[in-house]
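Reminder to self: tokens first, then the designed residues, so the page reads top to bottom the way the pipeline ran.
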């Protein structure tokens, strides 16, 4: 079963909408883990699909903002036609201070295809299984 189908089934079985998702390669995911940050694309543009898995390819890792962080530490810029851009507020929302375009891994989860569920990015990835789409 593809990772896209697994994510759809996971949310359907819980009566949940699929949240905005980010897809990345396994090597880029390892970089996110080592730096502790998901950094916005250098050339600008959306880094999260509007809703759904989007253009995930075989070997991709699918990441989302933790539901508990959305609206509390992360807001969305939704004007981009291809997707959404997250804004991270270190002091929490609402905040009159500056926001960052990077997201710390403490606010991220990845979909583990082997376990068929969402897990914190900073957990052990020994069981990470990349499924073909």
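Designed residues (133 positions):
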């Amino acid at each position: 079963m593809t990772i896209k189908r697994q994510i759809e089934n996971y949310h359907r079985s819980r009566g949940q909408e699929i949240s905005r998702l980010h897809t990345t390669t396994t090597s880029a995911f390892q970089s996110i883990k080592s730096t502790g940050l998901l950094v916005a694309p250098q050339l600008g543009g959306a880094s999260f699909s509007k809703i759904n898995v989007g253009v995930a390819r075989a070997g991709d890792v699918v990441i989302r903002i933790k539901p508990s962080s959305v609206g509390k530490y992360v807001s969305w810029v939704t004007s981009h036609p291809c997707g959404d851009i997250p804004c991270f507020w270190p002091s929490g929302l609402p905040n009159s201070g500056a926001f960052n375009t990077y997201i710390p891994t403490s606010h991220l989860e990845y979909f583990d295809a082997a376990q068929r569920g969402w897990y914190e990015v900073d957990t052990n990835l020994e069981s990470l299984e990349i499924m073909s789409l």
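Residues 3-120 form one domain.
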